[in-house]
Specification:
Helix content is 37%, strand content 20%. The longest helix has 16 residues. Helix 2 packs across helix 9. An eight-stranded mixed β-sheet has the order 1-2-4-3-5-6-7-8, sandwiched between helices. The protein is of the alpha/beta class and 284 residues long. The radius of gyration is 18 Å and the shape is globular. It has one domain: Alpha/Beta hydrolase fold, catalytic domain (Rossmann fold), CATH 3.40.50.1820.
């Protein structure tokens, strides 16, 4: 583990051991991109189906659309770290980045999000450009969910999942090993959120746990994960299921890395962001 990553890990592990880890409470205000983040970029905001949709792009003609779905356990809004990555994508890949601000639990559920994202898909499809879907953590799970829909599959060329939350069963034999060294995520909290987010009291619903859904027909898929992450084993299971379904996939595994490590300002995170930008640039 890199020294920067270790400092982050030690700090948050201390909070976890003190019982100070409380996923999603209290909710913080959504972050807005700073002028520094938006240097050389433009941002437009519209309301689609009652939810905010932000569109970020550079001055050069766009070659594709990237739909970025932020994480936060379905209970926290977009954060500064998300805007750091979104701005780099818009600036360095000649992409128009759509950033849907889907509604959060417990006021909203997955059906609200999917209804909103269908309206976003129509906006995206109207541009006639190839599409990349990307997301981190809960946003990665939601990204996989929409990528399983035939309407999205018709326009999507690449799927990028950063430590995606794709199931809440965690029945792996050595699961506790990964939960105990993850400084942020708690399985009981996530499962409870998944039950609420499902709108049906069922965390196994495939729209909430897309690892259980149909993977055939997905575009080439890239997964980023470390092994100090509660979601690590599900990422491995997803890779195996993708391979079994005949889907081209790449697992970018970083030993000693924390949850959503590409969003952490560290050598590992910087290298992962570079790979993400390269993959987007190479998508056709």
């Amino acid at each position: 583990m890199n020294p920067v990553m270790r400092i982050v890990w030690l700090f948050f592990m201390a909070k976890k051991k003190l019982g100070l880890t409380r996923l999603g409470r209290p909710a913080r205000p959504p972050a807005m991109p700073t002028s520094k983040q938006l240097r050389g970029l433009s941002i437009d905001t519209k309301v689609v189906g009652g939810f905010p949709l932000r569109v970020v792009k550079g001055s050069s003609p766009s070659e594709r659309v990237v739909v970025y779905l932020h994480g936060g356990g379905y209970v926290q809004p977009i954060a500064k770290q998300h805007w750091d990555l979104i701005a780099k994508i818009a600036r360095e890949t000649s992409s128009t980045v759509f950033v849907p601000r889907y509604g959060l639990a417990s006021r909203h559920n997955v059906d609200d999000a999917l209804g909103f994202l269908e309206l976003v898909r129509k906006e995206v499809a109207g541009l006639g450009l190839p599409v990349v879907i990307a997301g981190d953590s809960a946003g990665g799970g939601l990204a996989l969910t929409i990528a399983q829909q035939s309407s999205w599959q018709k326009i999507t060329k690449l799927l990028i999942l950063i430590a995606p939350w794709v199931d809440s069963e965690w029945s792996y034999e050595d699961f506790e090993r990964y939960e105990n060294r993850d400084p942020w995520l708690l399985s009981q909290s996530l499962r409870y959120i998944a039950i609420v987010w499902s709108g049906r009291g069922d965390y196994k619903r495939v729209e909430v746990s897309p690892l259980r859904g149909e993977l055939r027909g997905l575009p080439p898929t890239s997964i980023y994960v470390g092994d100090y992450d509660l979601l690590y084993q599900d990422a491995l299971a997803l890779k195996m299921k993708l391979a079994a379904a005949g889907i081209e996939n790449t697992l970018h595994f970083q030993p000693g890395a924390l949850h959503v490590y590409p969003l952490i300002p560290s050598p590992e995170g910087t290298a992962a962001v570079r790979k993400i930008l390269d993959e987007i640039n190479q998508s056709e």
